[in-house]
């Protein structure tokens, strides 16, 4: 009976959030861009009009044409195909980094708030140490030690922004564990794991979800920037940052070559940011009255 009531409340809240977001143009705009990027990443071999790694130096730096809709790069490769394939590392880095940050942040944040004591002091010290370094310096140092690769970028970005989630979860948990429903569950004999995962975590996850949506855009920017500096994906692999790196030296002779990956990065960041903002408003009872 309790589980059915809990499922009914969850379903009712989900329907309310969806109704609010359906009235917000930001949800449609952001959702459409995100779906386009995800479809491009998943079905890249089916969508791409040409092999993104096939070179043809006789057709290098050509403008848009019927055969190459966005033109060709310095090695004669089809730019549209490379843009489509470049969505894959962007999606992997953004979702992979966020998943690592959320999982570690939730675990450490819950332990710090619920257990307290020396363990909380140690966890907060770890957060402070990571946040003491400027993110760009910390990321560059770790990448120079570990070496540039897609996996290392995902792990390092996830660890770098993890303290944000840990502190949010800790603050929310400190508030939630003093609520009456937690005391009631404890008085009925519920153990700590049940209280944390059945009562506290579901109530704080909305804040984590909104924060992760906003950080998706930052992940896209970080991946492109690190690849541009040569610390992310390495040529000839296709990445928007790699494409920027390869095209900036031709900005005078072939300006469109650098325009397309820049637009892809901008639109992807816009999509995640607008959708996260719409979700934030829908999940906030005070803000969604204005929608």
From TrEMBL:
Q: Where is the ABC transmembrane type-1 domain?
A: 87-276
Q: In which broad location class does this protein mainly occur, judging by the first location in its UniProt entry?
A: membrane
- Topology in the lipid bilayer: Multi-pass membrane protein
InterPro entries reported for this sequence: BP-dependent_transpt_permease, MetI-like, MetI-like_sf, OppC_N
Show the Gene3D superfamilies listed in the entry: MetI-like
Q: Per its UniProt entry, which superkingdom is the organism in?
A: Bacteria
One family name in Pfam for this protein: OppC_N
User: Which GO terms of type biological process are on file?
Assistant: transmembrane transport
Q: Which UniProt keywords apply?
A: Cell membrane, Membrane, Transmembrane, Transmembrane helix, Transport
One Gene Ontology cellular component term attached to this UniProt record is: plasma membrane
Where are the bilayer-spanning segments? 27-48, 83-104, 111-130, 136-161, 204-233, 253-276
Q: Where in the cell is it found?
A: Cell membrane
Q: What is this protein called?
A: Peptide/nickel transport system permease protein/oligopeptide transport system permease protein
């Amino acid at each position: 009976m309790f589980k059915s009531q809990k499922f009914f409340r969850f379903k009712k809240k989900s329907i309310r959030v969806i109704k609010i977001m359906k009235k917000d143009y930001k949800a449609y705009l952001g959702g459409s861009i995100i779906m386009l990027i995800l479809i491009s990443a998943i079905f890249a071999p089916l969508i791409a009009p040409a092999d993104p790694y096939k070179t043809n130096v006789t057709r290098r730096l050509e403008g848009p044409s019927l055969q190459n809709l966005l033109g060709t790069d310095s090695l004669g490769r089809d730019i549209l195909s490379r843009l489509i394939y470049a969505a894959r590392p962007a999606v992997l880095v953004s979702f992979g980094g966020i998943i690592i940050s959320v999982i570690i942040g939730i675990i450490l944040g819950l332990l710090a708030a619920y257990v307290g004591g020396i363990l909380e002091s140690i966890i907060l010290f770890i957060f402070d140490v990571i946040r003491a370094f400027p993110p760009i310096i910390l990321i560059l140092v770790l990448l120079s030690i570990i070496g540039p690769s897609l996996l290392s970028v995902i792990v390092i970005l996830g660890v770098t922004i993890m303290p944000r989630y840990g502190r949010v979860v800790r603050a929310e948990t400190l508030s939630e564990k003093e609520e009456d429903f937690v005391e009631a569950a404890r008085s009925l004999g519920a153990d700590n794991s049940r209280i944390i995962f059945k009562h506290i975590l579901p109530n704080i996850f909305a804040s984590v979800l909104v924060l992760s949506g906003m950080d998706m855009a930052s992940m896209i920017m970080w991946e492109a920037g690190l690849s541009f500096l040569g610390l992310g994906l390495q040529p000839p692999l296709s990445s928007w940052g790699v494409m920027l790196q390869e095209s900036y030296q031709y900005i005078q002779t072939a300006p469109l070559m650098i325009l397309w990956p820049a637009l892809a990065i901008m639109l992807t960041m816009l999509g995640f940011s607008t959708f996260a903002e719409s979700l934030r408003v829908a999940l906030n009872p005070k803000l969604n009255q204005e929608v």
